Amino acid sequence: MLSLASIGAAWAQKVQLSTSAGDIVIQLDKDKAPKTVDNFVQYVKAGHYNGTIFHRVIDNFMIQGGGMTADMKEKPTRAPIALESRNGLTNVRGSVAMARTANPNSATAQFFLNVRDNPFLDQANARDGEGYAVFGKVVEGMDVVDKIKTAATTTKGPHQNVPAEPILIKKASIIEP
């Protein structure tokens, strides 16, 4: 029998991203994306995201962060995780998904926040048949996400769509239920 405490428990864990543009709170879905959530939480607890930037910002698409420092150096990561894109969660406005390379099982620490519905990123619609694994949603601070998405961008080395002024993730922390 379900207890009242267990109802909604899968969505109970939250992460706060304290950024130079304001705070964003992400609610994680461990039931639908257990490996991805565990991976993300491990990076949060290790302090990996502290001092990283949103290094790829595309208005009307998404903002990506979690892997680069302000001087565009990539932080070391753990081994990649298996893709969990067949979990029923979709790339809608406010959802949070793992970034990856062309290899579906290549996600490590980088993530992105969808600033609009992006159904072409869902497994069912993806060109590669794999898609991108959604593992949470923004529950506070979508106004901050909207502010970040309109940042002026430039090219830095091989990286395009980099905010001209760094948008820093000062600290990522777990909010216990």
Word description of this protein:
With 177 residues, this protein is mainly beta. The chain contains two helices and ten strands; from the N terminus they run E-E-H-E-E-E-E-E-H-E-E-E. It has helices spanning 34-45, 142-149, and strands at 14-19, 22-28, 52-58, 62-69, 95-98, 111-114, 134-140, 153-156, 159-163, 168-175. Strands 1-2-7-5-6-4-3-10 form an eight-stranded antiparallel barrel. A hairpin with a 2-residue loop joins strand 8 (153-156) and strand 9 (159-163). The two termini are 21 Å apart. Mean pLDDT is 94; it is low at 1-9.
The CA-CA distance between the termini, in Å, is 21 Å
Overall geometry: globular
Helical content band: 10-25%
Number of helices: 2
Mean pLDDT figure: 94
Oligomer: single chain
Order of helices and strands: EEHEEEEEHEEE
The computed structural class is mainly beta
Q: Which value, in Å, is the CA radius of gyration?
A: 15 Å
Number of strands: 10
Biggest sheet descriptor: 8 strands, antiparallel, barrel
The largest sheet has its strands arranged as: 1-2-7-5-6-4-3-10
- Flag low-confidence runs: 1-9
User: How much strand content do the residues show?
Assistant: 25-35%
Give structural attributes.
single chain, mainly beta, eight-stranded antiparallel barrel, two-stranded antiparallel ribbon, 10 strands, disordered N terminus
Give the SSE map.
Blueprint lengths: L13 E6 L2 E7 L5 H12 L6 E7 L3 E8 L25 E4 L12 E4 L19 E7 L1 H8 L3 E4 L2 E5 L4 E8 L2
Antiparallel strand pairs: 1-2, 1-10, 2-7, 3-4, 3-10, 4-6, 5-6, 5-7, 8-9
